[in-house]
Design a protein that fits this description.
2 domains, Rossmann fold, 10 strands, 4-stranded parallel sheet, homodimer, alpha/beta
Amino acid sequence: MDRIPTKQDIIDAHERIAEHIPRTPVMRSEALDRAADAGVHCKMECLMPDVGSFKIRGVMNALLSLSPQDRKRGVLTQSSGNHAQAFALVAKKMGIPATIVMPRNANAIKKRNVLEFGGRIVECEPGDGPREQMVLDVQRKTGAVTIHPFNDYRIIAGQATAAKELLEDVPDLDAIVVPVGGGGLLSGTALAAHYFSPQTKVIAGEPSGADDAYRSLYSGSIQGNPTVDTIADGLITKLGDKTFPIIQQHVDDIIRVDDEEISSAMRQLWERLRVTVEPSGAVAYAAVLKENSRFYRQNVGIILSGGNVDLDRIPFLQ
Amino acid sequence: MDRIPTKQDIIDAHERIAEHIPRTPVMRSEALDRAADAGVHCKMECLMPDVGSFKIRGVMNALLSLSPQDRKRGVLTQSSGNHAQAFALVAKKMGIPATIVMPRNANAIKKRNVLEFGGRIVECEPGDGPREQMVLDVQRKTGAVTIHPFNDYRIIAGQATAAKELLEDVPDLDAIVVPVGGGGLLSGTALAAHYFSPQTKVIAGEPSGADDAYRSLYSGSIQGNPTVDTIADGLITKLGDKTFPIIQQHVDDIIRVDDEEISSAMRQLWERLRVTVEPSGAVAYAAVLKENSRFYRQNVGIILSGGNVDLDRIPFLQ
């Protein structure tokens, strides 16, 4: 797919994946409403079976779109964690050999799950440069089809289905708030709101210690992170040339939150919803708490994007 | 209601409460299936909004059955935790003043939630004797209607609706496994299976450190716990004269698990389902793991009964 997903592309993606993955619930809590001074509607992507994140949506859509010839070549991707798990599981279910380039320092739980799902891990040094070089090397050796974790319109159309479901379940949302890393979920959400509920604002939460998307949005060109310092390990990549223009056109704002705010939001979600949302998954709720006057008494949808926590390293208990 | 709930009583209870509380999801995980060597179907009562446990089912059914005169008198109950929270919340929503007798050493999170929901807490010393004395004292002073947390047929009929929903969602279950404390959930589950799916076995999990129900079932009379030593703080009460006969007639067996087994099962559920199941809520899954040869390749429903954990005291991190 070589164009920005249309409304019909997102409808098609949803039909393609809906028979393979369950609809995640939307949860509410009086305590969260009180804390945010708003009607908080949580889309529980962290409860996605087996993989614990929304990433399976994009992967499923992309792999189901491959030709039989491409399937035989095998598939290759890069990821620090949640995309890797989803990629390994979906490929296994479809009988496609999968290789995932992961940084050496990736979260232990996420690595274990990739191996359990039958994925082959190739390790690289942390950072954009070494990772991309390793992907090129592996591709040259294996001839596998490379699928980028977010800078791919099939992936973006898949991620858009989370917001599509949320807007079907809660049609009167004033805003949807999601985390931003590479921008796959954010650009997909922005397109879904644009097509299915144009009056709904789309706002992102981003860790202050990796605020490249914020700087990109306000400078008008894609920025990187010279240094990275955040517990939200899923949100450190920079935007891509496919996600950025969609974000520029359809995203209203990006709110930055520091690690203490992320950790505190995370604890609230564990206590009040009883789910182990991971730091990256709590960033959107942290953003709503931080700037709650913007959402005063509004209906706000929040995508709790993932729940894969290394239980020996729970940030609010360190 | 002064009779063992009939099939119609349970259907009526379900209709009465269904418009007030959402249907909790049934979740699956490849990793849990692998660990148990069975098809594991988890009824997520720990995700019940606001109160985080199945207890709201019985409370809702009991309070909705009160006469207008009784509602004016106010209501009174006793509980170490999850019943207390549900009682306070439902009473508040119905505009009924609620008093809850709680032991001094009850879980801090459960106490905080009771107060947030507008319940009045009267503290007592731990143990059956002091608690029952305090309930009598408060009843005499206030004239409130006393509702027992489990030894009440309205409560039992309400708790039965969890298994009824589970059997509707997964009709071919070979067994349902639930935790047992006072026996409200266990007797309700046993009745639901008896009426709606008689071929489904009902088995309980119980902490070894408070194994009164096991000893009661095999001695033929209600036993207490001379000493109590378990992390499953919701399961230390003994059976009642209304729950015990139902359990004798319809429960197939009780499996005892020690604290290490509970803690390890709890960690698995946190990692694989991404929910903060509490120790008492993990007991049924611990029982399935312990005696997994009994359930080999069967379809097993497990009620994950509650998710209220004091996050500063997570057993598997102590």
